[in-house]
Amino acid sequence: MIGSTVEDRAANLQAYYKAERQKRPAVLEKHTPSDSSQTDLSRFEPATSVRSMANRDTCADMFQELERYFRDLHQRLSVFECLPSSLSTSSSCWQVDHIRAVKGYERSSADQPVPLPRELRPTAVLHRTMAYLLASIADRLELDTSCSLWKPWYEFMLARTRAIREDVVQQRPCGPLFVGMMERIAQFHISGTARLMHQPSDSFDNRINSENSA
């Protein structure tokens, strides 16, 4: 997206998204946010098929562009998705690594609009994202001899795997890739219990972990 600064690019993309949504008004009805950490497919009943409205999910990245800019602007970054060169400074100066940034879970509102095609990751991209998390992030805990990364590591993995499940809810895919992703997410939560069960409750909540493994 054209723009000389992150602020400009975010503003231009936001204006584009707004114009696109005005062409195709629709909302997800009966989408009742819950305090439960589980992503239950039965709680979501779109009034209009997401696939029929959005044609086809086209986001080729692990995290859509506009939200990457917003996360960078508002400093809502994890140590696992920042440019290594920026990590030597305070967290307020961290810069997003657009290659490593992964969509995180955020609770939906009751009047959430139907996602645009460029906001939804296709099943193949979700599978690639899950593979990246397992290959590049999941084993980082073993390298952290100081244990200082245990909490941010778990929070990062939890939010990113929940976001994968959320995208699955939006699209209702099926097939071996989908089944494989769900199995790997469950395995992450099982291994999380084994690795972190002795950590303080502010670092690891076994109840929430168990709920998300279902």
From TrEMBL:
One of its GO terms (biological process) is mRNA export from nucleus. Gene3D superfamilies: 1.25.40.990. Signal peptide: none annotated. GO terms for cellular component: cytoplasm; transcription export complex 2. InterPro entries: SAC3/GANP/THP3, SAC3/GANP/THP3_conserved. Residues 24-49 are annotated as: Disordered. Residues 24-33 have a biased composition (Basic and acidic residues). This is SAC3/GANP/THP3 conserved domain-containing protein.
